[in-house]
Design goal:
Length: 322
């Protein structure tokens, strides 16, 4: 009887946790898991690839031949880190290591009918310079660690992989918004200064894994952010011009920051806080849930960021001109 009672207690507890999770999930906007890519073209945070997604109005997902034709059209100069022309290919079990294969041949393994790999192909279409740079940096790090006799991947490669999967570039003409986000002052940035944020700041997703997760966003979904400050004239560029310029900047930035690059330098950004990603963030109270909008850990003298500091302990974004 005691075993039965214990079993029921565990079962009831699990059921209660499941109901709590389902209640959270039910608050989020969902699109059918069987939807075509075009269904996501108008969703927030898909802006860099919205025009490409709109081309695919039905399933199945495009195969490698169609993806290669698209790449030839929108990014014909896309190459690997060794200047090999990029081609999407169906993977095989005996393929060499992922980054090494791309570097040596330009071939990007792309599984058929796989959303994750589909979004990786989209990333190559709109971030070709940065994708090539990441590939080159991976191979340079592999060679350097082998020569030094160091085991494992190292923090630099871990950061490159993490950013490739879930990275986002937050570009802002406001000097305060990036500082507030980096300091985890979520309510102030996302709610109290919502109008300023929407007028001055763009959230450009780089990570293809993040796009995959955004098909059905879940409570607590985060990206890893790099903050960048720009002059107001950057915002006057067309979305396509902004994307090309951001790609050029990010490729250079990652190269220049290589020595300091590590997962700890990439700052967490709760994506469901971005206006419009979920209908629930139309209320101030939404940003007071610390399970999702966590305060900055203490003790901490200053937020960790790839952006420089202004001497006051507050992060300021790197300001650049287009």
């Amino acid at each position: 009887m005691r075993r039965l009672a214990a079993h029921r207690a565990v079962r009831d507890a699990a059921a209660g946790e499941l109901r709590q999770v389902m209640a959270l999930v039910s608050l989020l906007p969902m699109i059918s898991i069987d939807a075509a890519p075009a269904a996501f073209a108008s969703r927030p945070l898909f802006e860099p690839i919205a025009g490409l997604l709109a081309r695919f109005g039905s399933r199945p997902l495009p195969g490698v031949d169609e993806l290669n034709r698209l790449l030839d059209e929108v990014a014909p100069a896309a190459t690997s880190g060794s200047d090999r022309t990029i081609r999407f290919v169906v993977p095989h079990e005996d393929d060499p290591a992922y980054e090494e294969r791309i570097f040596a041949t330009g071939e990007v393994p792309t599984r058929p009918e796989d959303w994750h790999d589909f979004f990786n192909a989209m990333a190559w279409c709109v971030w070709p310079r940065t994708k090539a740079t990441c590939n080159a940096l991976h191979l340079a790090q592999i060679a350097a660690r082998r020569e030094a006799g160091l085991p494992g991947r190292g923090s630099c490669r871990d950061a490159l992989t993490q950013f490739d999967e879930c990275g986002i570039v937050v570009v802002s003409a406001s000097p305060e918004i990036p500082a507030l986000l980096a300091a985890h002052r979520w309510e102030e940035a996302f709610w109290e200064r919502r109008g300023e944020l929407q007028a001055t700041t763009r959230f450009l997703v780089f990570g293809h894994g993040t796009w995959d997760q955004l098909r059905q966003p879940f409570f607590g979904l985060c990206a890893k952010a790099i903050y960048r400050g720009v002059d107001a004239d950057w915002l006057a560029l067309s979305p396509d011009e902004q994307q090309v310029e951001a790609d050029r900047w990010l490729a250079q930035h990652l190269t220049e920051q290589l020595e300091d690059l590590s997962p700890r330098r990439l700052l967490p950004l709760p994506l469901l806080g971005v206006p419009g990603v979920t209908v629930d963030n139309a209320e101030r109270e939404y940003y007071r849930d610390v399970r999702q909008f966590r305060p900055l850990r203490e003790p901490s003298l200053k937020p960790r960021s790839s952006a420089p500091h202004d001497g006051s302990g507050r992060v300021r974004a790197t300001r650049t001109r287009p």
